[in-house]
From TrEMBL:
Record-stated family: Belongs to the 5-formyltetrahydrofolate cyclo-ligase family.
Protein name: 5-formyltetrahydrofolate cyclo-ligase
Keyword Nucleotide-binding recorded: yes
Catalytic activity, reaction form: (6S)-5-formyl-5,6,7,8-tetrahydrofolate + ATP = (6R)-5,10-methenyltetrahydrofolate + ADP + phosphate
Tagged with keyword Repeat: no
Binding-site positions, ATP: 106-114
Residues that hold substrate according to the record: 4
GO BP of this protein: folic acid-containing compound biosynthetic process; tetrahydrofolate interconversion
Organism: Heterocephalus glaber
Chain's gene name: Mthfs
Keywords: ATP-binding, Nucleotide-binding
Length: 164
């Protein structure tokens, strides 16, 4: 059984709607992760695979990073005009994980990539993107142990066969 939901169709839909898509690029020697721009939905299958079997651009592949699209001056300007900020950055992050509970706690793979990224995002943007975990029903737990640096997901989505 797979341990993560495939997101290929979601990525295709993002592009069909004319939206911009960013994907994670992990630095395996640390817990650093960037969210880098994907040029097209077809591109993902041609990217090299990591040791975790994840397609991602190589470190020498120069790409736009989502945090580089954040403009604090634009945020202040938008708020001064009384409208919602549209200053770049990310609206949504789909969060991977091995297990989830109904409090939004997430069991990752232990390196803290997403938690560290979200904390860095919060420091730069003043808010974090909405986070959704896509899960198999078997990944739902009564309790997921967390540490002080773990960031909760806003919503966990899973298929409920009894609801069909």
């Amino acid at each position: 059984m797979q341990d993560e939901i495939e997101t290929e169709e979601i990525i295709k839909d993002i592009f069909q709607q004319g939206k911009t898509c960013f994907i994670p690029r992990y630095q395996f020697q640390s817990n650093h992760m960037d969210m880098v721009k994907l040029a097209s939905p077809d591109e993902i299958s041609s990217l090299p695979k990591t040791s975790w079997n994840i397609h991602q651009p190589g470190e020498d592949d120069v790409r736009e990073e989502a945090l580089s699209t954040v403009s604090l001056g634009k945020v202040k300007e938008d708020w001064a005009l009384g409208c919602c900020p549209n200053s770049g950055g990310l609206d949504l992050i789909l969060m991977p994980g091995l297990g989830f509970d109904n409090h939004g706690n997430r069991l990752g793979r232990g390196r803290g990539y997403y938690d560290t990224y979200l904390q860095r995002y919060l420091q730069l943007q003043g808010t974090k993107p909405y986070t959704i975990a896509l899960a198999f029903k078997e990944q739902l737990c009564h309790h997921v142990p967390v540490g002080e640096h773990d960031v909760r997901v806003d919503e966990v989505l899973y298929e409920d066969p009894t609801a069909l």
